[in-house]
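Bug #77: duplicate submission created two jobs. Keeping one. Sequence:
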Amino acid sequence: MPELSRRVTLGRVAGVFGVKGWVKVVSNTRPADNLLKYPQWWLGADEGYLATLVDAKAQVNGIIAQLSGRDGQPITDRDIAARLVGKDISIDRAELPPAPPGSYYWADLIGMTVVSGQDEPLGTVTAMMENGVQDVLVLNDGIVERLIPFVQGPIILKVDLDTRRIVADWSPDY
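Kept job's structure:
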């Protein structure tokens, strides 16, 4: 099973909104307002802090939110909110609900080893991206970077979260 004690980035603070300490948020969740299901967000990396979601609204162009500061009190000052711009928003991996059968969180796929159907090493998943049609694994074997469409069945033959291994119908020569 994936390690559940790590943090997973679900978005970032993109700007300030108004003069009362609210921020604009870019969500990486689908749909975007799923981010609002989590009442506490880690802001920033190790030097960050656990903020409480005081209030939030999903809008046509994204999400706006009011967060607590390090002292636990709601941020009500635009200048203080501006210090949050650019900070990643993450939660503990254990807070995510189980993925539906046959579905995977990108965060769980990153770091997995990928091999061909003939057990030839293809690399390690270093990132995920989408191309508008499907998700794509970004692999690196130390020499070559490969992009493999994450299409279960014809291309992705098996995903084993326990062994952290993906088997793909893909050749190292592609």
